[in-house]
Write a structure and sequence with these properties.
Layout: E1 7-9, E2 18-20, H1 22-30, E3 43-47, H2 51-56, E4 74-78, E5 83-84, E6 88-92, E7 99-109, E8 125-135, H3 146-149, E9 155-163, E10 174-179, E11 185-188, H4 196-204, E12 214-216, E13 225-226, E14 231-236, E15 242-248
Parallel strand pairs: 3-12, 5-9, 6-15
Antiparallel strand pairs: 1-2, 1-9, 3-4, 7-8, 7-12, 7-13, 8-9, 10-11, 10-14, 14-15
Length: about 260
Amino acid sequence: MFSVADHLLHVEGEPLPRDVDAASARAALAAGVRCRAPVSGAVYGTLLNDRDALAALGDAVNAAPYKAPPKAPILYLKPRNTLAGHRARVDVPDDENGVQVGASLGIVIGRTASRVAKADAFDYIAGYTLVADLCVPHDNVYRPSVRFRARDRFCVIGPAVLAKRHVAHPDALPIAVGIEGRPTFTASTATSIRGVAQLLADVTDFMTLAAGDVLTLGVPHRAPVAHAGEHATLTLADWPPLDIAFVAAREGAEP
């Protein structure tokens, strides 16, 4: 089992996450703490679950080799080396291309989930978190590239996991990504093709999710791109914001 009573926060330097109330979590974050990812299970990204992203492909979805829109969720793994937490410093491997900053709802699994019915899906969810699903911008959407999506610290999670009871409407959450000097990028989980319950049902129809795993709802279309020297702040609704600093690759090494 993976359970969350309130806000699960893993402060850098502490051996284990702590489960605290909202006020305590916000006070710790306001004091400038740096965090580790508050989860340690497998993290699965979901591709083309945004209506606008799928629509933007146009007739390409009907071209070879697939010749039709996806009939099941397209998943990719964000491996352990990608995990990072609030106030992470992320290397930009090629500053000309930058790093795409995709803000996504992370569904945190509470118990083993296999062949879950849509009507029962929320019984398998412990809580939710904010996932900065980062990648090097690229055009190929059908074969998610390890080279572009699985670089070190390319999955920044947190700052906290919120208990399920705090999130009444996960399919209608406003999303914002702010990068200094630019208009704020805004989106919503409401543009998802599969909502939380349907996505969990469809994924567990062909694979088992374990307690502590995270399944992302997917990145909104036209997510912004950050470059070295820039700072991004991501939010979902009124949750505590997630901060990321982007640095030139030569500056990004961490102990």
